[in-house]
Write a structure and sequence with these properties.
Layout: E1 4-7, E2 12-14, H1 15-35, H2 41-68, H3 85-103, H4 107-132, E3 146-147, H5 153-157, E4 164-165, H6 168-190, H7 194-210, E5 219-220, E6 223-224, H8 225-246
Antiparallel strand pairs: 1-2, 3-4, 5-6
Helix pairs in contact: 1-4, 2-3, 4-6, 4-7, 6-7, 7-8
């Protein structure tokens, strides 16, 4: 855990925020290179803002009582960590569809470009989670287990005790980088299908890793909220694959 990347008094940069910024810049550059378009900059900015706002809103709703009820202004301290990816994905998708409707863009073609970059940026965010100490895994004495220090989320949740936990953040970052490699290879070869593959692939990754999470999360019918959303995400991915196949001649 290393929450402060730079702390010189007059200059204070959070590692989580730096990882998010790096992820955004990498995605931006990659989308421009793959699409060959410079006119998507406005869309990318709107999607990034929507992603942060949606992720933060979802996290705040789920953790309001534990983290924000006593300090409501902490809601705005996004740079300190505390984002729920699915919340950002939902809001970003809404903004994306509105943009395509207004600009008369081909939804599937543009989504296939963007979906290649998303797991790369997301992996950077998960590395930020590790440095901040949030989204940690179950208690473990395995060789790969880590012990987050005092004043970390894990330390507080374990009754102010130092306990070994699985570094699920790094597991997910590695899985996302592997998914990114697959999507990039598919896109460079076919220029299609990546949106569906991304949604199904990430849903599978998230659903499985949720079993290894140890941080407090809402649950319903024996499944975490993340797992329930993953099921819907996989179905949406299957729909994208079917729709993309039907419209391939019109792209």
């Amino acid at each position: 855990m290393h929450p402060d990347l730079i702390d010189l008094g007059f200059l204070h940069v959070k590692t989580y925020g730096a990882c998010m910024a790096a992820g955004f810049l990498l995605c931006w550059h990659l989308v421009e290179r793959l699409s060959g378009r410079k006119d998507v900059s406005n869309l990318l900015m709107y999607l990034m803002l929507a992603g942060v706002a949606g992720s933060r809103a979802a996290y705040v709703v789920e953790h309001w009582s534990a983290e924000f009820a006593a300090a409501p202004l902490d809601v705005f301290k996004v740079w300190q960590g505390g984002l729920m990816f699915y919340g950002g994905l939902v809001l970003a998708l809404a903004v994306f569809f509105v943009w395509c409707r207004v600009k008369k863009e081909n939804v599937v073609a543009l989504a296939d470009v963007l979906s290649v970059a998303v797991p790369l940026g997301h992996a950077c965010g998960r590395i930020g989670c590790f440095f901040y100490g949030c989204c940690y895994g179950r208690d473990s004495d395995a060789w790969c287990a880590v012990v987050f220090p005092e004043f970390s989320p894990s330390w507080y949740e374990h009754g102010r005790r130092l306990v070994g936990v699985l570094p699920v953040q790094l597991f997910e970052a590695a899985a996302l980088l592997a998914l990114f490699a697959v999507l990039l290879a598919v896109y460079l070869k076919t220029r299609r299908h990546t949106t569906g593959i991304y949604l199904v692939g990430y849903a599978a990754i998230r659903f499985g890793l949720e079993f290894l999470r140890g941080d407090p999360r809402a649950a319903f019918c024996g499944l975490s909220i993340g797992q329930l959303i993953s099921i819907g995400t996989a179905l949406a991915g299957a729909a994208f694959l079917a729709y993309g196949e039907r419209t391939r001649d019109n792209r």
